[in-house]
Specification:
six-stranded parallel beta sheet, 22 strands, 724 residues
């Protein structure tokens, strides 16, 4: 007879439950419930167990009202047996899939082959036009460096991993392609964090290849094994760990495309269960969604880079073990090895994938054309994003000249119009922004550099264009509001804007007003250059002479605080993509890496590095790198024996110069100890500044890296500048 609870539910839709099987629970049987097709259920707490038995479930499923009839008792056992068999078969098939047994049936493994995963890495890099890879050697990554050398990719090793990534960053900015660095596992990767973050903030597409412990030994205490992906996910828009040799090619292709797609600097990703990718889809368990672009990270465990026979020697016991457990472990390791290398050398596409670059819609462009056409005092502020591919610097420059709108240039846009162009306004930006009636912020963000938007007039109509919506609208809810916000590629937008405004001109008195303010500021600079200083040389005068000496084919690399801040007002880059500074992150120590990448990318250019003496401490050892690789660059060190940008505020506000003092170190002699050439400029030869600069140029042309140690005094040129 059915229990009272079963009687209560009879006819109310228990869909085949039948009699309550409490009698069997005491013998350990389970109450198998068969659901009719279409039945719906809701989870509900079981309030009270039947008096005649103890229910083993904490939950029961109460079916919605449906007519039901009790299932015949004899049908339960065959159904259970069928379900159990099906579950077992599914589990076995799933295990076989996870172990790669099915894949191995179709893709054989040559365990005696001398080929290795490093060859796949090098092949993809070559197919993407990579000519240089920057590195500091480590055993985890040796195969990929050897393979790159064999394929004609120049391997440039530095004395610190951070320099390798800075060099890749500079290569990316100047070449318009992805810069590549490779470092070893653990501390090799942690040493790159600052440079990777700088690339993210500066919106620079960099591929970082990192070694890692064997896939089988991760999370088991292997040498230099840490969770590297978690470290780089906040810094890179794409992170992946390659788990099998055959995944190297699709993973790297996806990473290279991600680095250049969208907006540099941001990332989004989700975990997927499958591996392998032909586009920006799945790869090694990761999927990159359409999102901003920037630095990317690919982890390459040591066992996917070395040859199969070497991995086998380390992974699989030489002698067959005895006992069942030993044999099972041995079989697992043999199968793991086979799955690691199965299909490794089968042909795969290696070339670039299509890029995903957002574009402004025609409707947005037309609205901006209409706003700008009614302007009386238009002004444009161009930032680094304007120089990203696909628009070339020459096309962008021609478009800006045709447009005829006066502009300020920042970041990588410095030098876009060359030296002393009438449309290029260099000083009094805040005052100019307050007077303009229409402002175009092209690749510029309203962060601390624009006082978070507070310098923008509420009466101005503001057009802002940026690849990333979050950056584009930064602080727009507080200090400013755009008339038109355009998410799209900046360079392409400017070209379309010019097409829509063909024949449009603006009154010349607006440009003349801005240029007159520039001339007044330049007169102030000349007066400050003529003022005596307490000791050594006047830095303003020295930098004026640098500006007069700088050749047209030069590239300027700047790394420092006070000396570089002064140079930003006085020294002009001679053309597009001829100025390299760290960007919004304000990183010290970029100088040697940027100079290395710049000289290799533009071998015919003269690379002039302007260092503060504090910042030069980071780069000094890399003159060994310049000497070994025969890379002639010229470093001008503004040596005022201190962290002057900090002490300028710290001393008057807090009354102490603690931790701000340095010494008038003989940096030129230290460089000579590394094999470079060294020159000194001080008050004793202040009438020979130009001659010493020419001597340094000549030594560079003869193939020698040169350090010019310039002893300078302190001026009030940058009083009021901020350091935080």
């Amino acid at each position: 007879m059915a229990s009272p609870r079963a009687q209560a539910h009879k006819g109310r839709g228990l869909a085949g439950l039948g009699a309550w099987p409490h009698r069997n629970w005491r013998q350990g049987a389970w109450p198998w419930i068969k659901l009719r097709a279409g039945a719906r259920f809701l989870p509900e707490r079981f309030p009270v167990a039947p008096k005649s038995g103890k229910c083993p479930f904490s939950l029961r499923y109460h079916l919605m009202e449906t007519p039901a009839a009790a299932a015949p008792a004899g049908s339960l056992f065959p159904s259970f047996l069928l379900l159990a068999c099906g579950t077992l078969v599914a589990a076995l098939l799933g295990a076989a899939h996870r172990l790669g047994l099915f894949y191995q049936l179709l893709h054989k493994v040559d365990k005696a082959s001398v080929r290795h995963g490093g060859e796949n890495v090098a092949a993809v890099l070559r197919a993407h036009g990579v000519r240089f890879i920057f590195t500091l050697i480590g055993g985890h990554i040796s195969p990929l460096l050897v393979a790159c050398e064999k394929l004609g990719i120049r391997v440039v090793d530095t004395r610190h991993e951070v320099t390798a990534v800075f060099a890749a960053d500079a290569m990316a900015r100047l070449s318009g392609t992805v810069g590549v660095a490779a470092v070893t596992a653990g501390p090799g990767l942690t040493n790159t964090v600052t440079a990777v973050k700088n690339a993210q903030m500066a919106q620079s597409p960099v591929l970082l290849l990192g070694g890692a412990a064997s896939t089988l030994l991760q999370n088991r205490g292997a040498l230099q094994a840490i969770d590297q992906l978690s470290l780089f996910r906040p810094l890179c828009k794409f992170c992946a760990s390659v788990r099998r040799v055959r995944d190297i090619v699709p993973t790297l292709r996806a990473a290279m495309a991600a680095a250049q797609s969208g907006t540099p600097g941001r990332w989004r990703m989700v975990m997927l269960s499958s591996a392998g990718a032909e586009g920006l889809g799945t790869c090694c368990g990761l999927s990159v969604l359409p999102a901003p672009a920037g630095p990317v990270f690919v982890e390459l465990p040591v066992d996917v880079l070395y040859p199969c026979f070497m991995v086998q020697k380390e992974m699989v016991p030489a002698k067959s073990p005895k006992g069942l457990v030993g044999r099972v472990v041995s079989w697992y390791l043999e199968n793991y090895l086979a799955n690691l290398f199965a299909g490794a050398w089968e042909p795969q596409p290696e070339g670039p994938l299509p890029l995903d670059i957002p574009q402004a819609s025609p409707q947005q462009v037309q609205r901006c054309v209409e706003i700008l056409s009614r302007a009386k005092r238009p002004l444009m502020v161009l930032g680094s994003q304007a120089l990203l591919t696909p628009t070339s610097a020459d096309k962008l420059r021609a478009a800006v000249e045709t447009l005829g709108v006066p502009c300020f240039l920042g970041g990588m846009a410095r030098g876009l119009l060359g030296r002393n162009h009438p449309l290029h306004i260099r000083e009094n930006r805040s005052a100019a922004l307050k007077k303009a009636d229409v402002i175009v912020l092209a690749g510029t963000v309203c962060d601390f550099r624009l006082s978070y938007g507070r310098v923008l007039s509420h009466s101005s109509k503001i057009i802002i264009v940026n690849r990333n919506r979050e950056e584009m609208l930064l602080n727009s809810d507080i200090f400013w509001k755009p008339q038109e916000a355009v998410q799209g590629d900046v360079g392409s937008f400017v070209l379309k804007l010019v097409e829509g405004l063909q024949g449009q001109t603006w009154a010349p008195d607006w440009v003349e007003e801005l240029r007159e303010a520039d001339r007044q500021k330049e007169q102030t600079f000349r007066e400050k250059a003529a003022m005596p200083v307490a000791q050594h040389l006047n830095p303003v005068r020295v930098l004026q002479l640098v500006e007069e000496t700088l050749p047209d084919n030069s590239i300027l690399v700047v790394d420092g605080g006070d000396f570089v801040g002064t140079a930003a007002h006085l020294v002009q880059p001679r053309g597009p993509l001829r100025w390299l500074d760290p960007g919004a992150f304000g990183t010290l120590g970029v100088g040697a890496g940027f100079a290395l990448g710049a000289k290799l990318c533009r071998p015919d250019a003269e690379v002039w590095c302007l260092f503060g003496d504090g910042a030069f401490g980071y780069s000094l050892i890399e003159f060994d790198t310049f000497v070994r690789h025969k890379i002639p660059v010229m470093a001008l060190v503004g040596n005022d024996a201190g962290w002057t940008q900090i002490s300028r505020e710290q001393v008057p506000s807090l009354g102490s110069n603690v931790a701000c003092g340095l010494a008038y170190t003989d940096y030129h002699k230290a460089a000579m100890g590394l094999g470079a050439r060294g020159l000194l400029l001080s008050r004793e030869n202040e009438d020979q500044v130009v001659k010493v600069l020419h001597d340094a140029q000549q030594q560079c042309r003869d193939g020698h890296p040169v350090v010019v140690n310039i002893l300078i005094g302190r001026t009030d040129f940058r009083d009021g500048s901020i350091a935080v």
